[in-house]
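[User] I wish I could look at a protein chain and see how it folds. I have put the entry right below:
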Amino acid sequence: MDPAMLFIPGIIMLTPVAILLIFMRYRTDQTKERYRTLLQLAEKGVELPHELLADPHTSNSDRRRALVLIGGGLGLMAMFLALPIEFHDGQRIASLWGLGLLPLMTGLGYFANWWLNRRDDMRG
């Protein structure tokens, strides 16, 4: 088998992992900087409001997370179906389309959670 045939799918598979690692590093650095700033304010004797100590949470984060995962799952499924690569035993890479179901279903779960929380907030 041609090494390029293994290199391209490897890059395609490792790209989301690299993006996730970069995002996690960014969030860690952002949190460290936030706590460093809070520590500097506390050392100066400034009284810290409770809102600054809590982690920031947006009200639509579940909806955003859901839409990203649903889009990622559909994109992953479409990518596998569109790739014309065949393995040495004749099996096509398109048969791996089901791997996109995991982020798709997880995204649908987040979307349902967002919808149910929004509905409960409207009642109460």
